[in-house]
Amino acid sequence: MPEDSPAPFAQNAEQNPLTEAAAEDLVHGICFKTGPPRLLGAELEWLVVDIERPWLPLTPERLTAAHAAARALPLNSRLTVEPGGQLELSSAPADSLAACMDGLRADLTAVRGTLRGQGLALRGLGQDPREPLDRLLTSPRYDAMETYFDRTGPAGRAMMRSSASVQVCVDAGHEEPGPLGYGRRWQLAHLLGAVLVAVFANSPGREGPYRGWRCARQGIWSDIDPRRALAPPLDAEPRAGWVRHALDTEVMCVRSPGDGPWAVPSGLRFRDWLRTGGERRPTAEDLEYHLSTLFPPVRPRGHLELRMIDAQPGENGWLVPVALVHALFDDPEASETAYRAVKALADAYGPRCAPRNPLWRTAARSGPADPELRAAAALCFRAAGEALPRLGADTEVRDAVGEFAERYVRRGRCPADDAEAAAAAGTRAGTRAGAGAGAGAGQADVTARAGEHRRRPPAAKGPRP
Hints:
- By secondary structure, the protein is of the alpha+beta class.
- It has 18 helices and seven strands.
């Protein structure tokens, strides 16, 4: 369903009211579509920066022109724009790691070439340090979203306007138990999440409540809403737990017909809406729309969408998390090794839900400098390195994963350390700091040539959004 779709014709809601039981059945039926794990996908979000002055925000006119030029390209991936002007490429579901990566690489080459002609570049960073950042997109959805998030503080605006991630999508898995069963994969996604936050942290917090964090983006996501970005309890059966979580989360907005503003109720759970009816009865379309406004670290959309990984530096830094997740989920031996490693670690930190679990907070603050997270990450990278040849990964991908493990994981470091070191030194990015995972040390990096981590001059500073 398009994000800005208006409300269905009101008469339909009265003629076909959605009951609470029907709503539970609908969510139950669409959240996990089981079968042999076969498909892989990735969604890559990027900041768009000026090549010569990357520390300055772009004007709305320049961003809009860049997006229009990119949309005009014949791409295999779906290109969308986030509220702050971030550009996202979403691959088509692919039946192999090579197909997924080849399609994204070809599209990124085309987009980068077009943007370069306008003096612009793509930058892989989890949180945009430029200030102030305005919301580029105006629509009933984003107007309502901002109104809703403003009730709980500034984190919602920061998330909408300045965050960027690598999201990896894997099949839910078999109906039956086992390493490739949907129940185990659901557990693995949440248990592994803290390790993924730590090793791919690339949003160093330089001020405010996340100062000193390796993954400030994760802190922002955990603070946007008391429940909307929270995972359901893992001790529940996955379908039942997600159904309960989805219906008991507040409604962000109630769509209206036409182009008018959407209502933003306060404290109205979707279950309450089903029971009371409100100004109009909810429909199945309203429920599907509600599900699109839930932002847990792992979102079941038939497949599993892993949302906790920061955008990565370098032209090809994104391929390492995609390859790692593919190996740890779709190779049974690697999956079992990873599960044992992260289960023992997660159990020691208690059952609180991600991302507010103490382990996730440690991962966001310290990255792999935490010795327990570093040890678990090392086991996962070793298992993935052994699995990738079995899965048919090419030499470039295997080398990229190995180089990342050597450069970061084994040294207790993450990309945020490079970003922070370059910023502290006041240097232009380039050479080593910007040569992110997957890009060889000598490989040219568009974002590095753009001065990827250059400190912003005092004149560019402004109030926080």
